[in-house]
Structures are given as structure tokens and as C-alpha cells.
Amino acid sequence: MTNLVEVRNLRIEAKTDSGRIVELIKGVSLDIADGEIVALIGESGSGKTTVALSLMGYARPGCRITGGEINVNGKNMAALSEKQRARLRGTDIAYVPQSAAASFNPSATIMEQVIEVTRIHRLMPPERARKRAVELFRALSLPDPERIGARYPHQVSGGQLQRLSAAMALIGDPKLVIFDEPTTALDVTTQIDVLKAFKSVMRAGGIAGVYVSHDLAVVAQIADHIVVLKGGEVQETGSTPQILSAAQHPYTRELLAAFEPKPRQAQAHAYAGAKPLLRIDNVTAGYGAVRDDGLPLIRAVNAVSLVVEKGRNLGVIGESGCGKSTLARVIAGIHPATAGDIIFDGKQLERAASKRSQDQLREMQIVFQYADTALNPAKPIEDIISRPLAFYHGINRQARSKRVDELLDMVRLPRALRYRRPSELSGGQKQRVNFARALAADPKLIICDEITSALDTVVASAVIELLKELQRELGLSYIFISHDLSVVEAICDEIMVMYNGERVEQITPDKLKAPSHPYSKLLFSSVPKLDPTWLDGLVRDPELVSTYGHR
Amino acid sequence: MTMARGAASRRSLLGHSYNLVGVVASLVILAWTLVAIFAPYIIPHPIGDIVDDDYFGPMRQGLWLGSDYLGRDMLSRVLIGARYTVGISLAAVCIACFSGVVLGMVAAVTGGWFDTCLSRFLDAMNSIPSKLFGLVVVAAVGSSIPVLILTLAVIYIPGAYRFARALAVNINTMDFMTVARVRGESTAYLIGSEILPNIIRPVLADFGLRFVFIVLLLSGLSFLGLGLQPPLADWGALVRENIGGLPFAAPAVIVPSLAIASLTISVNLLIDNLPQKIRDRDT
Predict the structure, then answer these.
(1) Based on the domain organization, do A165 and A56 belong to the same domain?
(2) Which residues of A touch B190 (CB under 8 A)?
(3) Structural domain of A437
(4) Which residue among A69, A129, A431, B30 has its CA within the 20 to 30 Å range from the CA of B152?
């Protein structure tokens, strides 16, 4: 045995509620050498997490490892008893979950949870475990390593929590660490710190890793080898530079192509001189009690002004908590502004949606980030899409049914989908239905709140293409809110950068290379590039990072 | 309450999977429902007639369940009793759940003062012990079937309200509710079309549970002599009037108890083993 991990012909099956057997993993083989980081990459549903979990001998409820060998450190995990596996988990193999926030116990201190592994496996006395934990905190460049362990999970930020969960994984001195999309939920500026910390710790300890992700650029920074999965099968394996520069398999190329920015041809001149569709002036909104000066205690949006012209798109970009989603809700009237004017199509709008006229509501639609919660799970797709038709346009059942077909065609979904429920659709399909419902209202402006953030790169770029096409056909305008610069760059004519509730800069995509505001500089330089040497070569102005990269 | 799911074999039909316990439970409920509907046509003796020379007579030919403390036919009295127990309880639970669930959803969607006032008022109602409340009402206005139904319904509205409100509040925070609101939908649409389909299953389970509580409360009230008045008798009243037969192990006291148990347990089992829709369409 030369490699730390040797997976041979792994098969995993799941049983559906009707008793049908579905093969999830169809004979996957992979090797991981000592101290090497291998990335598993693929779209959602490709089986990448299932494969990663199987390295611990674990199959999620309803799934079963039915064939093949999983040799980790000389032991076949598939053949061991549950008790023997438990002994290896935490000491030989450790796991870092996607959402650290959901994986920590909110009612115990961080230190207690980090050293729990050493207690379960009786690795070392608690005092030594605490010292070791502090060393790990320092190695992961966490702030205040001596005292951070005394805090509770809600008292630290998301990026810190993700590093703390890595500390939890590393304290048992594992030979293999499994990272399950650990940075997907983080901002780009935070992601860099986490990636850097992971990389330096893994390299220093010579620990092998499995890094599950759908983001090729992130993977390029951290992995030595890349395994591309699709439909439960390995499509392509190779070293990172090899995959990035000379991908063989069409699916890998598609992944790479999705990453290439497709700058949008400016079609601005066609509408030059057009009057603004939406103008907001000095809008302020927030949460908490309203104080004497008529402003709320916590101002999530502070005196923001913006203009959207007919047929043009405005991108709003910033990290989480910068107020961009609140801004969307303020414009739509879901969260009424406390000050400022919203002028839509030449008329002043009421601040609260409940006071706006039906036509005003119809002409401005909002599409939310999570299609899972934006579509009523109890209703078939046709009911969801046809409701705005009945509500705003009052058209009869037959005409409605025809229109639903047209709308499904528009968003490139098969017509047969109309009888299904949202839970029976994939993430990308749900987001298209979500969008079709907004289109059904016949709007002039669609506010897209992070609509591609929950989607894979390939699916997201397809959705963006669709939006562009629909804009050409229907003359829509979009306000596109995102934390993903490449997405905004691909579709918007103007980009507004928000920070801490305020607008810091408004620029056009062609000037993206040279932002003037320091925060924009930091934000734009934090977007990972496909180049594997990017992270190591990245030099950030320490002053900038300490001013704005406070997470 | 929680039977070992899946321990009983599951079989599928019409896109749903059933299990044996659920099927048996629903058969028992169906049987009692049929008895309740057709009781007057199938009873062997009028319920008020004294047909046995002895009291607390044993089971024998002609008097299949023996006789009661006056020598009346027990089988006839249990069959007719089903009518009152099932009928009154069902009417009461329908009123209680309908009002409670509608109010709960409206409170969740509306929020603010309406929600606060209604919630505190119904909490106050909830704090009154149910038997005591029944006692007071019956003592004040006398016992009749409509009074019984309304009293039982009022006692169980706060519970249904709390339950539905708790479920609806969760649904209310979902984005599709925001979408519907921004669309300008009315409260009636919001509760009927957006919330209700998402909470209907737990609400039905709650409906069954509340039905059981009402059967037991009705039986309790009748046992105390506050329910139906003689010669009419529901199962609870039958247990009470024949309690003297306990030392003789008379079927007259055991049979109505078994009837109450069989109905309430069946409803519970059915709730726990409702047919489940198979989501896997590719079969």
C-alpha cells in the first residue's frame, strides 16, 4: 500500500420510498497520497459529498455502501464494524462540514467542543488538549487565540467559526481531513483568510485532505489533484495545472467555460437619453426602535441613492451584512424605508408595499435567493406560475394554461414540469420557476436578490444567459444584487458597491480593473482566479484588510 | 402514540403506501361510524325496554352483551350510544378545529395587536380546567345536545388555535409568503391557499387527537351525570350507570369501556399511520 487512501470501485445505493433502488455512486476509484490534497468537484447531485463521506465509512440515512473497497490508512472502511469506524473517526479521519454555524452546539463554549474529540478518544489530558487547541487557533490565524475558546459559537463570525471547526478536526492529529464545501457560505474577503489558514496548516502538518467544492477557482488554490465527478462517476482525474490548462472531458471544459467571464456588449446607446425607470433618493432604512430624529436604531441602508434606466441593469455588490438585501426589500416595499423617496416610472411610490396600487406592485417584481423557500412546496408548478396571471390580469383558466406553457418555454423548462411540485425539481429548475412567476406579472423591473448564489457555477451561468436573453426580448430592467463579482460583471451596465449600508462607489464594468474606492479594491482583488498560484502570490494591503476585512 | 413505524409491513396502492396498523385502525373507525349511522335500524330491542328478569345478566343467546342494571339489552344500548358519542364528539371537534385553525392562521398572518389580544384571551380560556368549565356551563343552562356540543367545542378551541398558530407562524416567515404579500394578496388567500396546504397534515393529526380528547371528556362528563340525560346514554354514561356491576364482572360495565378504548386507540393509531404519498415518480 503506497497511498494513504485507495478507493476502488466504490458503489453506493439508495432506496426510495417506493422501494426502488437508485445507484448513486457507480464505481468510483481514487487515490490520495500522504500529505496530498485532492479536490472532488462537480455539480450538486454529482455524488461528491457522498464519496467524501464514504471515506469515513459513513453513508447518509437511506444510503448503503454496496460494493468496492475504501482503504484508508490500510483499513477497509467499508468492511469495518460501526464501533471500529467510530474509533478511527476524529483520530485518523476528520470532517469539516459546510455550515460550521449549524454544526456547533450553541449552548457550549467553543473550547469545550474543540477538545471534545480528545476526551472521547482519551488522547490527552484536558489541559494539554487546551494548549494544543490554542496552538491550532494561532496556526489558523484566529484573533485572540488565548481567549477565543471561552466564547460561544454565536459570538464569533462565520469565517472564524469555519476555522474553529477546522481546529476541531485537526486536534486529533488526523491523517486525512475531509472538507465539505467549507467556504461556499462565506464572503470572498473572508474566504481568502480561511483558505490561507487551511492551506498553511495542512501543509505544515503534512496532512492529506479531501476538498469538496463546486468552485473551480477555490479548488485551484488549495488542491494538488482534482477529481471531476458527474452522475456518480469519475469524469476526469489529473493534477491541478493539468485540469486547468488541458481539460480533456467535455464536462470539465464546461465547468471551466462557466468560469470565463462573458462581458456583456453594452447596449446602452439604444436607450440613450431614456428617462430613468427607478430613482431612489437618500433612502434610509433599518431595524430596531425609531429614535427621536425619525431614524431607526440600526441603519442597514444609510442615505443610498440610485438610478435605473429603462432596459439597463444595475448591479449591487457587497459582502454579507452590507445592506444590499435590505435595499432590495426597501425598494420592493417589504421593509418600508424610514426616510427618502422612491420614484418608479415617473411616480412617487408609497414606502410600504401594502399601500401601493396593484399596477405598481405588478410592474416591479422581486425574485429571492432561495427558490426552496420562495416556492410554496404544497403547490404544483402550474398553480405557482398561474397565480399572478389570475391575480393581476384576471385571465380565464384556458388562457392561463396556455400562458403557463409559454412562460415555461421562455425560461427553458419542459412543459411537463407544470404538474410537479417544487421539491421534485433541481435547484436550477426551481430558480427558473421562481423567475417565470415574476415574468408572469409582466413587470418592467425585476429585482434579483442573489438569485444565482445557491446554484452551481454551470447552472448559474445558464441562468444568467437566460436573463440576458429575456431582457433582449422583453425590454426588462434588472437590479441584480449579488456578492459574486463575476455574475454582476456578466449582466450589469452599472455596478454599485455597498459597504456598511452605504454606497461607496458606482462604476461601469469596463472600469472594474481600476476601482477608485479602497473597499472596492479589496473586494475585487479577493475574487479567486483560476491560476493555482494566485492565493500564494496574493499581496493585500494590510491597512485595507484591517480597515474593511474585519471578519 | 408513536408506534414503531415500518415495523408493520407497508404496501402501496394508488401512489400511496399504507401499513397494516393504519388499515386495521381505519376499519374499526369505519365500523363504529356505520353503527352510529344505522343504529336505530339494527338494534334488537328498544333501548328503554326491560327485557331481562335479572339485572347485570351474563352474555347469552338473544342478549349478546348481557343486560344492564335495570335488565335492559346492553347490545342495543351500546349501539345507540355510539351514535351520541361519535356524533357529539365529531360535531364538537369540527367546530373547535375549524374556528381554532382559522383564527390561528389569521393571527399568524396579521400579527400585531390582533394576534396579541386574541392569543392572551385564548390563553386565559385555556387556563380554565375543562371539566370544571363543563360543570359550570351545564349547571347554568342545563344539559342538552347543542349545549354539550358548543361547550366541548369552546373548551378545545384554544388548543387548536395555539397549534395552528405555531405552525402558521413558521410558514409565514417563508419567502413565498413575502412574494404573495408583495403581490397584494388578501388575508383569505394567504391563509387558504398559501398556508393551509402546508400545515394540513399536522392539523389533521391534531384533529384526530382532539377528537379523542373530546370523546374522553364527553364520557367523563356523562360519567359525572352532566352529559346526556336518561334514558339516552352515550358510552361514558353507560359506564357510570353500570358501575355497580363491577364486582360481578358484568359485561354491562366492561363493554362500553372497551368501546371507548377501541375508538380512541384506533383514531390515535390511524393518525400515526396515515397513508403516505410516494414521492418517487419513476416507478
Answers:
(1) yes
(2) none
(3) 268-514
(4) B30
